[in-house]
Amino acid sequence: MNPPPSNKIINCPGKRVSDYLFVKEIGKGAFGQVFQAKNLLTNEVVAIKCIARSKLTDHGGIVGQLIQSEVEVLKQINNQHVVRLVQYLESANQCYIVLEYCNSGDFEQLWQSRNKRIPENEATNYMKQVLAGMQALHEKNILHRDLKLANILIHNSTLKIADLGFCKQLSDPNQQEKLSLGSLGNMAPEVVEQQPYGMAADMFSIGSMFYQLIFGQFPFTNQSQQKFLDDINNNKPNFRRNGLVISLELEQLLERMLMKDPNRRLKWSELYSHPLMQQKDLRYAQLSLNAIQADLINTKEMEQFYKDKDQNKMVEKPQDILSRLNINKQQEFQINRVVSQQLIEDEGTPGQLEDNIKQVEQLQQNMEQQIQEDKLVEYYIDKYMRLRDEIVYVSRTLNEAYENLGLDQCCLLCLVLAKKIYILNERLTKTLLEKDNIFQINDRILIKIYAHQHFEKFIQQIVEETTFAKDYVTYFAESLQHQPKLLQNKQGWHSEINKEISPQFNQIFKEVLNDFVFKLMEKTHDNNMKKEYDDEKKKSDNKHLFQLQIHLIDCSKYDKKYNQHGVIQKLFNYQKVNIYEQFDGLANKPVFEQQQLAQQRFDEMFD
User: Fold this and answer.
1) Residue-level pLDDT at 147
2) 143-163 average pLDDT score
3) Distance between CA 294 and CA 276 in Å, rounded?
4) Fewer beta carbons within 10 Å, N or C terminal of the chain?
5) Alpha-carbon Rg of the chain, whole angstroms?
6) Are residues 305 and 448 in the same domain?
7) 297 in a structural domain
8) DSSP per position, 63-118
């Protein structure tokens, strides 16, 4: 690495600004550059936005205004879902916004890596994180105005709203602004039309981004402003785009979030009272770092905040930080100093840079190693969580049978399912608590995995679920003793009428599930033969039977279906199963498709 042949102050790796040493350029835009840097006193890794002071008066002073807006907004926010301002510095030639560094890129990159399709349940959890950041802005009456996937950064699976230069702080929660800033595609129509707008504009942007995550494109065209307005004036969002089927709940939610008229658009308090935003029982949820992060967000508190806000009960009305700036009249912009009242000295001449080159090269290696280790930690945490997927699948199947059929019809089935859940839970609990290195991870990474706060939450969840599973076994075993008729002509199954796990359990488990599948098939046939049932009644009754039939067959053949090469495949090349799609997604399919899938699964029973 050689320093550039110039005597002027430049921004490049090796430059030192105050206590920060520039290590690597990580971004470049029309107004400046972004560098990964390290604080030489604290060892903190940061991101530094560099903007030439000569740019501040560009576009009638709007560049300077955007910088001041971002700094002033970030000074007020302390929330893990908004990028943190570390420091603001100025030299004679440059402005430096020092921000926390995010090690996993931006949300748009993640979305693209998933082929621009994120399933409904995952997208909902991601949006909860974004909404937590939005609430932090709205507490200060701040509109984001440029909310898009690229403006959300990711650090250790936590989403953080960034690029707040377009933010606008209102002096009153009901105030409306008339400055048009933002990105076509996510911009609310009232912003595009340069009409007055308030916080309902951010609701449209959130809805547009939510839609984009799932369907792979914007709900309305972004080819031009006029085409966008024509589209939203004449059409509703397409909720069958690309052949996807989403839940009716989500469809209705998005439709209201994307209303053209801001007065008819979903209110923020209504968003948090919606069923999709409520806390979920993690026992029936497929876990991921994203899911655990979303579970930590208190949506009830957020709902109450917006109810109070909608009723104009805001305690604080911060000063409008932009009211004193008149873009049209401003001839020259002088940004207020945020941290230091004195200019710092730039240290970026070739001689100074050359002295730092070797240090920078070593820092680059160390930082890259740290980033790769962080990614490995998340990768292996995900693999550990996948070991729980079968537990969730069987748990949801048990719950489905119990709710749709009742205890008197499926007590034996529920007992063997509960025992299966307990066996799997106990095995996984033992693996986790004894720190059994089943993935053959090096000690350094394994230590980091067990120190990760979300992995600690995962272990706690597994331990609690093992206790729940044991209680379920006791409950169903005691209930079955009062229903001896369920075991008529099933002499070989009597060993399971207790809380103990018999040596023959695995064989009996499959026999009980297969026997119940045949009973479900008989029941659907009987429903179809009932003359007093109209077609809708038959569909309604058979719908749940087809779904349960599919799930029981999957439970009996889980390893063969999802881990086709046994334990080694399960540990090292597992196939990730989207359990939400297997249950909630299946429930959204037409009955005839469910029947076809049930028949396919039945045929697989004899493979």
Assistant:
1) 87
2) 90
3) 12
4) C
5) 29
6) no
7) yes
8) HHHHHHHHHHHHHH---TTBPPEEEEEEBSSEEEEEEE--TT-BHHHHHHHTTT--
Please give the helix or strand (H or E) that residue 526 lies within, else none.
Answer: helix 505-529
Could you tell me if 155 and 105 are in contact, meaning their C-beta atoms sit under 8 angstroms apart?
no
Domain shared by 259 and 378, yes or no: no
- Does residue 7 have a pLDDT over 70? no
Inter-CA distances, 328 with 65, 182, 336, 480, Å: 12, 19, 19, 80
In a domain, 352, yes or no: no
pTM: 0.85
Is 49 flagged in the annotation as binding?
yes
Residues 195 and 292 in one domain: yes
Asked if residue 366 is part of any domain, the answer here is: no
d(CA 293, CA 512): 38
Q: Is 325 helix (H, G, I), strand (E, B) or coil?
A: coil
CB 50 within 8 A of CB 96: yes
User: Tokens standing for 288?
Assistant: 């991921």
CA–CA distance from 553 to each of 21, 57, 288, 522, 598 (Å)?
A: 60, 68, 25, 16, 9
**Percent of the chain at pLDDT above 90?**
57
- Domain check: are 244 and 381 in the same one? no
363 in Cβ contact with 9 (< 8 Å): no
Among 267, 282, 310, the domain-final residue is 310
Domain boundary among 310, 325, 356: 310
Number of domains in the chain: 2
Please compute the mean of the pLDDT values over residues 457-479 and round it to a whole number: 95
At residue 112's C-alpha, the angle toward residues 106 and 114, to 5°, is: 110
pLDDT of residue 567: 43
Residues 303 and 411 in one domain: no
Q: For residue 413, what are the domain limits?
A: 371-604
Dihedral of CA atoms 169, 172, 178, 184 in degrees, nearest 10, equals: 60
Q: Is residue 78 part of a domain?
A: no
Same domain flag for 265 and 389: no
Residue 198: which CATH number?
1.10.510.10
Same domain, 274 and 397: no
Q: What is the DSSP string of 203-272?
A: HHHHHHHHHHHHHSS-SS--S-HHHHHHHHHH----TTGGG----HHHHHHHHHHT-SSTTTSPPHHHHH
Q: What is the pLDDT of residues 335-388, one digit of tens each?
A: 444 434 456 766 556 666 677 877 888 899 999 999 999 999 999 999 999 999
Residue with token string 């911060």? 318
Cβ-in-10-Å burial (0-12, 13-18, 19+) of 541 comes to middle
Distance CA 583, CA 581 (A): 5
Q: Are residues 271 and 392 in the same domain?
A: no
Contact between 134 and 161 (Cβ < 8 Å): yes
For residue range 297-344, list pLDDT tens digits in order.
998 899 999 988 753 333 333 233 334 334 333 434 444 444 344 567
CA atoms within 13 A on the CB side of 296: 15
CB of 548 within 8 A of CB of 401? yes
pLDDT at position 57 is 81
Q: pLDDT tens, 82-110?
A: 999 999 999 988 999 999 999 999 999 99
Return the percentage of the chain with pLDDT > 70, whole number: 83
